[in-house]
Amino acid sequence: MTTAAPSSADLTVAFQQALRRELHVAGTAAGPRALMRAAANACRELLGQRWADTQAADASRGLKAEVRRVHYLSMEFLMGRALGNALAALKLDDALRAAFSAEGQALPDVLERENDAALGNGGLGRLAACFLDSFAELKLPSFGYGLRYQYGMFAQGVQGGRQVEAPDDWMALGNPWEVMRPELRYPVGFGGRVEVEASGARRWVPAEALVAQAYDFIVPAHHSERVSTLRQWHAQAEAPIDFAAFCRGDHQAAAAHRVAADALNWVLYPDDSTESGRVLRLKQEAFLVSASLQDLIARHLREFGSLEQLGRANAIHLNDTHPALAPAELMRLLLDEHGLSWDQAWTITRQAVSYTNHTLMPEALETWPVRLFEALLPRHLEIVYEINHRFLAQVKRQFPDDADLLRRVSLIDEGGQHGHFGGGERRVRMAALSIVASHRVNGVAALHSDLMVKTIFADYARLFPDRFHNVTNGVTPRRWLQQANPGLSTLLDGRIGTGWRHDLEELAKLKPLAADVRLGEQLLAVKRENKQRLADRIRRDLGMTVAVDSLFDVQIKRIHEYKRQLLNVLHVVARYQAIVADPRADWVPRTVVIAGKAASAYAMAKAIIQLTHDVGRVINSDPRVGDRLKLVFLPNYGVSLAETIIPAADLSEQISTAGTEASGTGNMKFALNGALTIGTWDGANIEMAQAFGEDNMFTFGLRTEQVDALKRVGYEPRHFVEQNAQLHAVMEAIARGDFSQGDSGRYRALVDRLLNQDVYLLMADFADYVKAQERVDALFRDRTAWAERVALNIAGMGMFSSDRTIQEYIDRVWSVKSLG
Ligand SMILES: *Cc1c(COP(=O)(O)O)cnc(C)c1O
């Protein structure tokens, strides 16, 4: 069945053909962009063959298969670039390096021309992308399902120190990787009403009809010929232009429905501060779910001829609650379109569906107003009510005297004071729907899963004790070590062999070598090369010079108060003040690098970006400071920027308030690349410290129990400021306008918030954070000791491969035996 692996000769031929086409179109000599497109086209041809073979193999598995076909539903897939990965997976990078240099171009320059597919916001979306890689690597029959956002989230620029957002027009010049599937088109409806037929059957008659068109993106395995698929839906209007309106000369009216349909394709997370933004978001979620499930059912019927075994043969995984309409839509399709009974349909749904929770913050738990839900999805609302009715009846039988329990666990928030939005509006709770309809629910790190069943989902955990479990996140070693850090990869290959690429646990072989001074020097030499590359990038993008031998102290992630970039900036200000007070002391020079996007409606996050720039401007231009301290903000954080920054980091900042970061995956990428972590006892930091030894991480700050205790007795941030002269001076300087040209108003709200509420306990953790930073300095002075810690960090990171994560999902969620 499988075709022979393409040889480098095959690819070279395919590449030359594709290049001729490109040049024909361009009519000029081969620039790097034409080479990039030609290479992508050549790879896509070869991947297409692997795709067909993979699908044929999966389709013939039948019901004996132990692992169900997985349908991973996610509103985000933060893929980044594809060419470097495809070339490595097809083992054709050498052939193309030669082909490019024949055209006078270097491979890295060609790879740079590809735009990132930035179809995600942060960790949740990048996790989904790492999972696609591991699906292929573990030969898992699978589809990732997402939306084909034309403008991603947004492109971040900085003007006058403030974030500015623009559409990220990543497909402006086409997307050479996608394969349109003209035969895969499904209708998706909105609005309208529910009709009852003579038989009693209910049928939804939508008012608006769209068409979902499939586009596939193929993800190759690196150690087999298997591929996995990301199937992305593109929304189109069902009807062509309104011809009558067109003839009247009203061209806008003729196309209004097309624009409305196209709006679903524009951006991830339309600003939900307006009603029309919220409507659009709910439509996007429903659209993803409906198209994906219709596709699943069509495939299942093709392979099995009937629906009884659908839940036994297929898993439907919800990446957070964004696709939580899936159980309601699956019930609708099975009941209304395929005529199954409620009990049959519910059994199948419960078997198929599983759900991963990604946040404990109650305000981040998704709910939709019943009013809006009903207007867009009237039949789904009926089904949600029926699920709820049956669920609550069961709860009542189990706990007959607990009326408050019924209120708390209901799929409907009845409003009143308990709703987060006040106003008494009734809302559908998407997490509750996901839990009730799933056979497994997991958190993403040990602490998070533990808190999940003790806090937000405590009631459900009491009702369904066997449903909840933990699967700690991971990252793909192919992208985050092999591709991002070729220098370190080659060093590891020489020392421990190449097996780590497929089995990351092999990194443990480095442990007995950690004290080898020569290995230490080699690790530091690789790090220095990577730092030089980042320094070049900083010079190119910002016109700033940083000292390559300074300590590169890095925090890159979405800008959010809980992640505490602000605590980092406060430390930078404290260090600045100390340097100015005593410039002759023996300072360990530092370059602090921050990158990350702030959600467009999140004013506080934007203020943090502005403060970072204001502080950076003052420090970086103060002649008393020189190389001792620099603060750099790199705009437009994304996967490719992360691939440049992470291998260059000496220190990884993972400093969220304990109990707030579900897992983190950035923390894993840094440690894998030989950065030491300064971190709180939060998320996966804890399991990392346990894996490579707590002494090999700079931990600080209050732990979850201490955070809770402090809040219980009444936290007074001012108290911490008054007691700490250093912190007091930092807050004073910001409040006074030292960094805002004397404008004491600019950061008043920010300072007031820290002094009065400080929800994330920056003031309480500041002193311990500064002490941990002093331990960092001390160790950095001792090159040999630092390098040994680096080796021990890398050696302990074996379990944080997404291959291990996916194997756990297979064993406990997606295998047939997980159905009990
Ligand atoms: C890994 C990654 C993240 C997640 O980072 P955290 O530090 O875990 O929040 C976000 N964005 C990108 C581009 C990433 O690569």
TrEMBL record:
Molecular-function GO terms, alphabetical: glycogen phosphorylase activity; pyridoxal phosphate binding
EC number: 2.4.1.1
GO cellular component, one term: cytoplasm
UniProt KW keywords: Allosteric enzyme, Carbohydrate metabolism, Cytoplasm, Glycosyltransferase, Pyridoxal phosphate, Transferase
UniProt catalytic activity: [(1->4)-alpha-D-glucosyl](n) + phosphate = [(1->4)-alpha-D-glucosyl](n-1) + alpha-D-glucose 1-phosphate
Modified residues (N6-(pyridoxal phosphate)lysine): K669
Name recorded for this polypeptide: Alpha-1,4 glucan phosphorylase
